[in-house]
Amino acid sequence: MRTAKKIACTVAMGAFLLVLVQICGMLIYQVDLAGWIWGMVSGQQTKEDPLVPAPENAEYPYVEQRMGYEQLPGEAEQLLYQQIAQGISKIQTEPNEEGLYPIEEIVYEGRLQEASLQLVISTFRNENPEVFWLANRYRYAYGSDVTTLSLYSYVSPERYTTMQRNLNRIRDEIFRQMPNGLSELDREIYLFESLSKRCTYDTETASGEENWKAYTLYGALVDGKAVCEGYSRAMQSLLGCTGMESILVNGTSKGMDHMWNLVKVDGDWYHLDATWGDGEEMMNYQYFNVTDDRITRDHVIYGSYENLDLETASAEDLQNTNLRLPVCSATAANYFLAKGIPIKTLHDKTNPQLVDAIAEAAKSKKESVSVYIDESLDFENALDGLFSKTPYLVSHCMGAASRKSGVELETKRSVFVSDPISRGITIKLLYVDAEK
């Protein structure tokens, strides 16, 4: 390897570090968003492995997520995106000093600013959740009218093949159990519930322990442990495999960096936060297909990258941005409005529609049922009437549903999650035989 001559000091820039190195007239930029510095890699044997596409469900066509690609500011960025896609699985067989496996270098004819490179890489990553092996680090160099981009894999080609096989096995299992002829909303519900049953929130990684897989669909679907990014990428992939569009959203929630999905259902866009929907006690649907107005009550959505000047912006500037997101104002596919049993009166001790819903759910050993409180009722008073005061509607309905279904349900104790903003309540079914 030729000796590298540093021509500038290491500069700490927020969440990442940048080193400028000069080799025979070329400027080499080594960028790591996690704040690590790593060496250059000499030529090594490359094993080319074709990118394995997402498995297609027999009934629904696979939908590529292309909104980000189409929003890239110019042909130069779109061409680089295509080059990344063509070479992303060309992983070298030997790791570098940091244990990462170099991916075949991309040579772009022309000079792209750092912000443009970061934008293209982020856009590619956020539209291709199946590329779970792509490390969150890259290196670029400027030569004579060319830009050279180096990407890295967390795993070797052999490990990649094994992991891809594991991932396909899990997704095939999910799709085999998926009923035929589902509407887009019912597909989304099925996939959300399948993910929630399979995955738990990775509190260790969230607290700082390093586990790159927790940020990927592999962590969510195969390992069964993920943080919000893993949940969101898994949902995006599963939705795409069943013919539905989805976009990743960057922002904050509960004072922390957060990621969730936009999902297109019957032509309208909605917010879906699968992470907060997977509660410790039970699944809930507070953030299932909600509007911009609802999500921004307790989430912050980062602005569009279009507000930045890519000629002067840094990679750090782009970290807290999104695509130009579509407006989410429709309510037809909101879970509580579409699937919740309507509660319009509390004058009676029973509600035949709720009894039937509980009985059917009990026969299938489902976890919960949901209700929607009509706007004519005061929400807090309705909560009292359902659970803690006359007419104790839920208790009476549980008893009637037990008799109708032949499945014994707890009637004296209730577990539920309520959302006054969406006027929805999810009620857990407590099976007596399961508690003995």
Automatic annotation (TrEMBL):
Residues annotated as domain Transglutaminase-like: 220-276
Keywords noted in UniProt: Membrane, Transmembrane, Transmembrane helix
Entry-linked InterPro entries: CAP/Cytokinesis_protein, Papain-like_cys_pep_sf, Transglutaminase-like
An example Gene Ontology CC term for this record: cytoplasm
Keyword Transmembrane helix attached: yes
Transmembrane segments: 7-29
Full protein name: Transglutaminase-like domain-containing protein
Residues spanning the signal sequence: none
Ribonucleoprotein recorded as keyword: no
